[in-house]
């Protein structure tokens, strides 16, 4: 019997990718024998390829919609396999439009579109925490157990020059378009 092919879409950002590991693990647990591919952006490709969740990682260059060559490359990338399931965990307008580039018959699709087979169309989703939305979205697909984010697979020896004893690393950056998520400079 041929393995089923699953596509998971997650472009970024870093905090969102970390939170999405809960969904990645749930999808892997739900489809233990499937060939699972992640479509992501270049900054996250190496990280996600090292994770235990994916068999393959593809890079989406996110071409502009008027970039015919770029869209053609994306079109070919999205048709690399005959997908049985597409889990769009990016849930952006852009990634939702990718469903129209997939081969017919279309696979089962989980995204935030009313045209998806398993659309998560809650109008209040922007007021909910990412993990709650992830759990609700995947619940519509039959994945009813979504745990907490886990990046323990990233553990490795710290480089020379690390502080001795216990320490914490703070990365206070944030997206320019989301000032409410930024650590105040005076702090």
Structure in words:
By secondary structure, the chain is α/β, with parallel strands linked by helices. Helix content is 27%, strand content 12%. The protein is built from 5 helices and 5 strands, in the order E-H-E-H-E-H-E-H-E-H. It has helices at residues 14-30, 42-49, 68-78, 93-97, 130-139, and strands spanning 5-9, 35-40, 56-59, 85-88, 108-110. A 5-stranded parallel β-sheet has the order 3-2-1-4-5. Helix 1 (14-30) links the parallel strand 1 and strand 2. Helix 1 packs parallel to helix 5 (130-139). The model has no long low-confidence stretch (mean pLDDT 91).
Number of strands: 5
Series of H and E elements: EHEHEHEHEH
Radius of gyration: 18 Å
- Beta-strand share of residues: 5-15%
Query: How many angstroms does the end-to-end distance come to?
Result: 57 Å
Unreliable stretches = none
Labels describing this entry:
187 residues; alpha/beta; 5 helices
Can I get a quick summary?
The protein is of the alpha/beta class and 187 residues long.
Per-chain topology:
Elements: E1 5-9, H1 14-30, E2 35-40, H2 42-49, E3 56-59, H3 68-78, E4 85-88, H4 93-97, E5 108-110, H5 130-139
Parallel strand pairs: 1-2, 1-4, 2-3, 4-5
